[in-house]
Write a structure and sequence with these properties.
With 268 residues, this protein is α/β, with parallel strands linked by helices. It has 2 domains: 34-185, Response regulator (Rossmann fold), CATH 3.40.50.2300; 212-266, no CATH class. Helices cover 47% and strands 15% of the residues. The protein contains 13 helices and 8 strands. It has helices spanning 2-18, 20-33, 52-67, 101-112, 128-131, 135-138, 142-147, 154-157, 170-177, 192-211, 214-218, 220-226, 248-257; strands spanning 43-47, 72-76, 91-95, 116-120, 164-167, 182-185, 229-234, 261-266. The strands form 2 sheets. Strands 2-1-3-4-5-6 form a 6-stranded parallel β-sheet, with helices on both faces. Strands 7-8 form a two-stranded parallel ribbon. Helix 1 packs antiparallel against helix 2.
Length: 268
């Protein structure tokens, strides 16, 4: 019941922050993810949500493994059938998962069958000493904070049964090695859908270049002088809300000195 109230509170907060349309769509996506087909296979990815982190660290990695011949599935930690999946896969990857009763039960079932558990993270949120400094943690209500008091998946990482971790960077890998784990760096990758979109953009840009007049193409100095330089900032999840403040002064100085610089802000 407590977990249900927390989820309801988070849903209302999302709608309040992002509006009825965008926030409602995000809540609906999270709801329908509870019933995403799982089936059977080699590797099951269990993730805490349906945002970009889950997409890059679970969906895209699962897609790559599928290309290499492994049968994979991705589900969320709140899937009502979660404890039943222990017998359907050989390897279980836990990505930014809270230690809920369902997760605990699944892990117990995995251990009974002697199967592999991999702890996956792309952030330091598993460690309470870092989590408490993150802005979004302080905006949680008391019930939410109770769930996060051991970090996101801190209980899984501290379990001696769990021997292997995956992460995104050498910095995080070193932090995980301090826990006595064997760590593999798995870089973020684009999905097949992403590359199709990128190819379309490149083809469009090439078509625009071909339409330029010969005189403009020959006048290289003019092109270079008038070319816009774009600086992109991709905000990521709400845990990075305050990050932009660390670069604001530098960006303002650059844009004052260089009139051909544009700032592109992307995120939610």
């Amino acid at each position: 019941m407590k977990l249900l109230l927390i989820k309801a509170g988070k849903a209302l907060s999302t709608i309040k922050r992002e509006g009825v349309f965008q926030g409602g769509r995000r809540v609906a996506t999270a709801f329908f993810a509870l019933f995403r087909f799982v089936g059977k296979g080699d590797v099951l990815f269990i993730t805490g949500g349906v945002g970009d982190s889950a997409r890059y660290r679970c969906d895209h990695v699962a897609e790559e493994l599928e290309l290499q011949g492994f049968k994979c599935a991705v589900t969320v930690q709140d899937n009502p059938l979660l404890p039943n999946y222990a017998g359907k896969f050989k390897v279980f990857v836990f990505h930014r998962v809270l230690f809920t009763p369902a997760v605990q039960k699944l892990i117990e079932n995995i251990k009974k069958q002697g199967k592999e558990i991999i702890f996956e993270t792309d952030d330091l949120v598993y460690d309470p000493q870092y989590l408490k400094h993150m802005d979004y943690f302080h905006k949680m209500n008391s019930l939410e904070k109770k769930l996060y008091e051991n970090g996101v998946g801190g209980e899984i990482l501290s379990d001696p049964y769990v021997k292997v971790c995956t992460t995104t960077t050498s910095f995080l890998a070193d932090k995980l090695k301090e826990k006595g784990k064997k760590v593999f760096i798995v870089p973020n990758k684009l999905s097949k859908k992403d590359t199709i979109i990128a190819d379309k953009i490149i083809r469009y840009q090439l078509s625009v270049i071909k339409k330029n007049t010969l005189s403009n193409l020959n006048n290289q100095s003019s092109i270079i002088d008038n070319e816009k330089i774009r600086i992109g900032y991709f905000s990521g999840t709400i845990s990075h809300n305050k990050d932009f403040a660390t670069v604001t002064d530098a960006l303002m100085e650059i844009m004052k000195k260089h009139q051909n610089v544009e700032l592109l802000l992307v995120g939610v």
